[in-house]
Amino acid sequence: MQIDIIQEINKYIVVYGMDILTSIAVLVVGIYLSRKLRKITRKFLEKAGIDLSLVGFISQLVYILGIVFVGVTVLNKLGMPTTSFVTVLGAAGFAVGLALQGSLSNFASGVLILVFKPFRVKDVIQTSDILGAVEEIQIFNTILRTFDNKTIIIPNSKLTSDKIINYTLQDKRRIDFEFGVSYDSDIVKVKNVIREIFDKDERILKDPMPIIGVLEFADSCIKIVARPWVITENYWPVYFDVMEKVKYEFDKNDIVIPYPQRVIHLRNDEKI
């Protein structure tokens, strides 16, 4: 019995040996060329000025289609009827599709992201629990890089079903400052000091004009709100500089930033 099986295998190798070797060569070369084609497609799209969001998506799609083409070619070379294979592949694809609904959902979500563009590559976005810059939009996932240099891979379906805050979509942003000053402070003087800081900083826009006013009479201080507008890329540099300058100018003008205070009354009850 074993001898018969070995003989059949030998016959198969003799008859189809060259086809098997050719198919292996086609498979190896095909995978290599598919990868090369992906790189060429990426470079071509980048030189053509195509939106970076589409570059990664299309290049990866080209790679997958190349692999499918190579697989069909190999099967055809081995003598398998590709027509019946396509039918079987369709049935198998339906079954796999049911099993991989999440992946199909991610693919559909990736298409929606590219069509409606809620964010693009290099945008800074925030989900419910993640903040980072978009590095690449792939077929099934979107890759973000956080500001402490972590790479985070998020399924596309999560990004289309969750709330997304895009910090860089608009060209202008408002910075909301709150400063607490003592109740002994001259409100007009405080506002003038803040306004002077804003006037000297060329990065702060004149239109819209900054808003400065009293926000609240808190327990231990008067809260002053200041809301200047800046170009989006200047948001954090201006924020840090203004915070430092306000402390310096308040000290220079004897404007007190009070500590939280509590008044405690002690009662000494004596028994008669």
Automatic annotation (TrEMBL):
Keyword ATP-binding: no
Domain Mechanosensitive ion channel MscS C-terminal: 175-257
Highest taxon, organism lineage: Bacteria
Residue stretches making up the Mechanosensitive ion channel transmembrane helices 2/3 domain: 61-101
Keywords: Cell membrane, Membrane, Transmembrane, Transmembrane helix
Protein's membrane topology: Multi-pass membrane protein
Membrane-spanning intervals of the chain: 12-33, 54-75, 87-116
Gene Ontology molecular function terms on file: mechanosensitive monoatomic ion channel activity
Annotated Mechanosensitive ion channel MscS domain residues: 103-168
Location of the protein in the cell: Cell membrane
GO cellular component term, pick one: plasma membrane
Similarity comment text for this entry: Belongs to the MscS (TC 1.A.23) family.
Protein name per Swiss-Prot or TrEMBL: MscS Mechanosensitive ion channel
Species name: Alkalithermobacter thermoalcaliphilus JW-YL-7 = DSM 7308
